[in-house]
Fold this protein.
Amino acid sequence: MKREILAVSCFCCFCFFALPLLAHHSFGAEYDANNPITVTGVLTKIEWTNPHSFIYVDVTDDKGNVANWKLEGYPPNVLYRNGWKKDTTMKIGDKITVTGWRARDGTNLAQSREVTLPSGKKMIFGPPSGTGDGGAAPAVEVR
Amino acid sequence: MRGLLIILITGVVSVPASLPAQTTKTKVNTTAGKAVPRTTDGKPDLTGVWQGGSSARGSWEEANSGLGLGGNGTNPDGPSVRSASERPTGESAPYQPWAAQKVLESYKKRGIDDPVNLCLPPGPTRAATQGLFPIQFIQTPKQITILYEYMNTFRNIPLNAKHPDDIVPTYMGDSVGRWEGDTLVVDIIGFNDRTWLQGTGTFHTEALHVTERYTRIDKDQINYEATMEDPNVFTKPWTIRSTIMLREGTRVREAVCAENNVDAARFEQYKKDGVNFSR
């Protein structure tokens, strides 16, 4: 019996070259760059909203328990310019896989990075890890 | 703090991977570009839609398919375009020691005190150097208007005019412009103290005075320079440089930040719940 799998991977020190970036909120404060995750499940809702979009995914574990995950990403205009088409590229009910980084509070919330669509095509939905928190070095040099 | 000493503020970010624009700059600048379009009065015509924080030529899709949103789209850890939280290269930022300490505190808090977290306007220097959202120039002989998709803000820049006497401090300041040869020079005063200049925590006071220089060197590229002066926080003027690239076929679109801005509240909840996000 096929089951959707939620794989939460913690690779300490992985991804911590944390590329600075994004234009807006400090994703790096909200999400843990040392806690990358991969979520596979059924898309239940899409919020094409500013300043950030959200997708919601029902994930079923090995015991049949279903958890709804919320994943944050780029705003609609950025997604549009990256090839996303609202209500076309991805639809409710689609089985998708999303990579990203989990929220620091440990809830079923994550910053998304890449979405694998039912066709197998991969598209960027959110920014790199550590985005918007000032990068890997402060504006001031310290010793 | 273990006696950490702030030695200086550097405008040269020690994260080269974050500056894809710089890696292509030399190549771009040696490419023979097409002629600068000019208005009927002979001035460079800046009219068009542009992208800051980039030095790649081509359409938005061409210029950003490799760098913009993550490598070639298959590498999630690929570099992205420059954000409004990041600084372009330039001379060191000469904050006074007490002010540098304040900048460092913002960095340690991962920028949760960034004014744009509240959907407030970013100020002109961040608006000009971020790369995720396009910029539109509308040029007439007497005024240039810049529309920023980021925070849906704008600037009117009357040419050969004086600042009004009744300025009330604002986020984007009061701009007046003039042509020095082929360079548009914009003088900005009248700022409030609620924006950051370049990079996390780079605060200023209402004494801020910015001088921008826009030089369109060919059809595709504007060289951007901003000198920021604020005797209350700096020991000397701070100059940053970046490039702004033409993006034909791109539209500046509506983007209402306040629509669903849940992140700031989440920061507050984190603090209330004792979730550690500092570094």
About this structure: The beta strands of chain A are 6-8, 31-47, 53-60, 66-73, 95-103, 109-116, 122-124, 140-142. The first helix of chain A runs from residue 27 to 30.
